[in-house]
Amino acid sequence: KMMAERRHSSKKGAHASLILACLIALLHRGLANYHITQVTLLIRHGTRELLGRDRITQADGVQLVHLTETGVEQMKQIGQDLKDRYVCPSGQGHIDGLTGSYQEDRSAYFSLSSDTERTLMTAAAFNQGLWSGCNATYDGLGTDPYAGVVPVHSVAARDDLMLLGYKNCPAFHDKVEEFYSSPEFTGLAAQEEDFLTRLYGCFQDEVASLSEGAGLSDAQRTLADMASLWDYAATAELAAPGALANATGGACSSADVPLMEVLANHVEHGKYTTDGAGVYLGSRFIREAAYAATERAGFDAWGRGVAHGWEEAAHLVHTPLPHFREREDVALAAYAAHYPTLKGVLAALGTSVADQLPVVPAWGAALALELHEHESGAVAPAVGLRYHAGVNGTFELLDLSSLRGAADGGVPSLGASFVTLGDFLARVEQQVYATDAAWCAGCGNDEAAACLAAELALLRSELGEDVVGAYATAVTLALFGGVALGALGYCTMQRYACRRKRAGEEEEEGAVEFGWPPAEPPR
């Protein structure tokens, strides 16, 4: 009987193993049927120098802050890791159309950066790691087979799609001020006032205040600056035993670091989650990346139920900026930016996705929007994060199951990391476009062209194409009518002046009409 039970158990185990093997084989077959066709990367800048009041400031208010040597190496390492994933022919997710050599892939790669020193350096260092060769490891001595310089495109901060929230959007600033004046924020500042006041004394000459002129106490201002303070602590490695005490003359110690991190997390989380200002930045980047992805997929996904005005707004917002949408041949695009944009992208996709990113991530984080295409023609986006921890980073795909809906059924499932393009665009339509519309509704800013484009999109969506067309026609006719009336008035005045001149010629010589010297007498 025991022998029979053992044989029965072994058969059950064999059956279970066989079922598991079949499932693995099916999953592997499903993965094999997909290939990556396009990737858009958002690269958060690496470890940088300290932002400070004594820093050189450009005319547009941007401080000249460089990456540290550690930050440059971080970016090269991230480029190498993603090179092994996307660029090398033997890579796990080698992108269609890439050969592994920048010399051969110039038209398939596009690098864009926010116009600040640290992000430009980030893009350049990342490019060097990405194109350092698939069979070589960068040794930090400049001996890698990196051939030539990969160009980095940028635009002025006042025109940068990702910086408009900081520069031009009153709603963005109102949202930040709302957070700073919230009971949660002021209560925490009061609770930790002694610690914050002491911390402010340690770093007041080094940290650039984010809230000067807001009427805050030193403690509240320090809490507003906590992200920069933690930034400084991380970049200068002040968390090491004794390092903080040595840097501050004993005023602060390594025991203060955990509380610094907690407070910094609170500030960052409050400003850049789904209810904060960061979602405005993230929604714009998602719109950009999704637009490029759908064009790369070879069809006009914007005609599939997306709200009126989206395409018009995209064209107006981006023209004439050299963003990804205008590069239909690009298989791999990279944008070097700042932490709020990266956090905001996940926030714009929804709370369940945003919560997968640490509030203050390890230095050197990169976000990837991958476009996978099935052999059946179905397209499935995925979002991945690359963390930097020491010299070894990890890349993982996020759980996007919360974005799934009924937009496109029947696409082979690859697990929680993938959604159909229809589901992804439905999220873009419902969450991202609605976010833009909500931010722009009732906004009195009439100076920023991008904001006006968003308002035009909102107007189109509310009134409809015909009404807006009639409105535009009326405005055009009014303009032409105004010009015509002005020209008629000018001609009338000129005729009147000529008549007065003729009358003056018959009077005393040397008379002056309308301040002008008289014309010479007729001969």
UniProtKB/TrEMBL annotation:
InterPro entries: His_Pase_clade-2, His_PPase_superfam, Histidine_acid_phosphatase. Keywords: Hydrolase, Membrane, Signal, Transmembrane, Transmembrane helix. GO terms for molecular function: phosphatase activity. Residues 1-32 form the signal peptide. Pfam families: His_Phos_2. The chain crosses the membrane at residues 468-492. Belongs to the histidine acid phosphatase family. This is Acid phosphatase.
